[in-house]
Each structure stands twice: as C-alpha cells, then as structure tokens.
C-alpha cells in the first residue's frame, strides 16, 4: 500500500490508498460484492468478533470504498476517513455519532440549505439546541459557543456570496468550550484548503461535487482523527448510509485529476470575475479572489486558490437576472456545482427560494443575484455566453 511520506497533493491524489489484488491490475479495482467468503469457520468467527481484521459485509467494509477513504484522508491530511452514501449522509452521520439530547450545535447561517433543515427539523426534534450565526461575525460565534456546545459547523467560502471564515480562530473558539469544529470543505476541496491543518476536527464533503468533478455519482465522506472516525464507523455500520463500491470507484478516478481541475476552475473563475467587473450591466461580483472582496486576505492566507464558484448582481431585478440566465446556451441551468460543465442558477428562486424575504435580505440573496459554478469550458466561450444576455439588458 502507498503511504503518505510527505508527498504532494498531486502525487497522493493519484497514488494514495491503492490496494492491488493478486491479479496485478494497474488501475484501482472495483469490488461489487455485498459479502465475503471466509476460508474457515474459525476465521469467520474471528472476523465477526473483531479479533482479526478482514472483510465481512459491504455495509461494514469494501476494498474499493476503503481505497477512496484512504486517498481522501491522505489528501485532507487526516488520519482516517469514512465514506457515506451522500454529502448529507456524512453530515447526518456526524450528528448522530457525536450529538446527544441536551447538546447544542452552533452553525453558520450560510450553509447548504439541507444542512440547515437537518439541524432545524431533525436534530431539534431529538432535543439538540441549534443556534445560527453570521459566518464572519467572530463575536457572534464567541457568544454562541458555550459549555453545552458539542459541534460548531461551517462552510467556507460560503455559497453564493463567497464569504470567508477564519477556520483557525473558530477552531480556537470551539476548542475553548470542548466542542468539535466541523468544516464542510465542498467548495475548496483539499486541493485548495485543508481545514484539519487549520485546527478543524472533522472535514465533511459532498463527493458529488468536485471530488467526482464530472457530475456522475452522489456520495460523501468525513475525515478526521482516527478515534473520531472509529466512532463514526460504528454509526455507519449500524444505520447503513454507506457508499456503494461503484461510486467509490468513480470518486477514486475523480480524485486523480482533482488538483488539475481545481487549478483550472480557479483560473477560469478568476478571469470571469475580472471580466464581469468590467461589464456595465454588472453591479457587483462576489469572488474571494478579487482584492475588493472583504474575505480576500483571509482566503489568500488559508487557501491556495479561490475556487470555481462566484456570484454577481446584474443591473435590474429578477427579470434582468432571468433574462441573462435564459440567454445562455453553453451553461447548464441547474443548481448543482463542481462539474466540468459550467452551471448557472438564480439563488433567490431556487437554492434559497424557501427562505423568507427577511432571511434572504439578511443573507444577501437579492433578486438580481446570479451564481455561476465555472466549469472547464473555454473562458472566452463562457464570457460570450453571458455577454449575449447582457446585450439584451441594454435593449
Ligand atoms: C451538495 C452539498 C451538500 C450535500 O451533498 P449531497 O451529496 O447532495 O448530499 C452539502 N454541502 C454542500 C456545501 C453542498 O454543496
């Protein structure tokens, strides 16, 4: 097996975690099997009792899934990883493994909508208190995190405004009260940001996004210290939201190109952000790569590049935003992100459509806001795709 001997991300992304079978296959093997046969009754007993390691059943372990877990753990700089059926399964599993009735979760207001729903609708139902705070308001975090707090949860950069949180400072706030800091690293991936190195305890991912990178499979993963991941595995084995071997195999191949892709996404997003700033029909651009962005310096300090997602406001209201979106021919009108294909969406009426007017105003989700997840197409073609809509606004 390939060990992390201080190799760089690009090397680990291609090499870490591979288990080669006696067949000597060069590419990672796909093991589509639900169970495993034991060489003897004694060996079966030893594996069931946990006395000897080895495969028993694919809800517990699968070699393809294990390769993915070891590779992503190496990339994040974590001791171990646990793969799950989706990004939400990873977040739910962290909640189920580490929260009890009477505990409190302090969560950023700017997290994935379903994460908010999970805390509000389900965790509260089981007696977990939840408090939401503004991502960049350090005094609000300080005030909210108390002795009852078990989990502190955030995403950085945020969606869709690209606000940036100080992971190290938030880890200190969480640890001072004995809480775990959980960072959803979906937008940056370990290619751009390694929250565990900044003091986070657990990183969660929707592998569905950039880890796959080509929009094929739904999956998730949590990464962290071995003792935390061992607790998480017990929940996974009991509740069952495990990753399928096939999806793990797709994600393994996705990881091989992660560094290249994230660099390309980031370069194109940077170019698009600068171009957008120059367009008279654009009132403002949210991208942490721009020097004018309030999170720019912090992002520069804790990220190696600024990622592929940006948002911008067009002159006008919903009508203008919809005209620009509907005029595109290359970009896909879909709420997904992290794909080789550029996606475009109107947050106020889709991803953030369920927020009240007051919540939208507070979150900066205006009617003229458009979010783009910049893919791998030619940048000039993408600019032309938006320019067509901008020209309509002048008419
Ligand atoms: C998509 C997403 C999730 C949920 O992941 P699924 O794989 O769809 O369950 C969680 N967090 C962020 C930031 C996401 O973009």
From TrEMBL:
- Where exactly are the transmembrane stretches of this chain? none
Report the protein's function: Catalyzes the formation of L-homocysteine from O-succinyl-L-homoserine (OSHS) and hydrogen sulfide.
Q: Is the keyword Amino-acid biosynthesis in the record?
A: yes
Q: Which PANTHER family match?
A: CYSTATHIONINE GAMMA-LYASE, TRANS-SULFURATION ENZYME FAMILY MEMBER
What this protein needs as a cofactor is:
pyridoxal 5'-phosphate
Record Pfam families: Cys_Met_Meta_PP
InterPro entries under this entry?
Answer: Cys/Met-Metab_PyrdxlP-dep_enz, Cys_met_metab_PP, O-succ-hSer_sulfhydrylase, PyrdxlP-dep_Trfase, PyrdxlP-dep_Trfase_major, PyrdxlP-dep_Trfase_small
Q: Which NCBIfam families match?
A: O_suc_HS_sulf, PRK08133.1
Quote the EC number.
Answer: 2.5.1.-
Q: What is this protein called?
A: O-succinylhomoserine sulfhydrylase
Query: Could you give the subunit structure recorded for this chain?
Result: Homotetramer.
Q: Which reaction does it catalyse?
A: O-succinyl-L-homoserine + hydrogen sulfide = L-homocysteine + succinate
Q: Which family does it belong to?
A: Belongs to the trans-sulfuration enzymes family. MetZ subfamily.
Q: In this chain, where does the modification N6-(pyridoxal phosphate)lysine occur?
A: 209
| Gene name for this UniProt entry | metZ
Q: In which pathway does it act?
A: Amino-acid biosynthesis; L-methionine biosynthesis via de novo pathway; L-homocysteine from O-succinyl-L-homoserine: step 1/1
Give the taxonomic lineage as stored in the record: Bacteria, Pseudomonadati, Pseudomonadota, Gammaproteobacteria, Cellvibrionales
Instruction: Give the keywords, sorted.
Output: Amino-acid biosynthesis, Methionine biosynthesis, Pyridoxal phosphate, Transferase
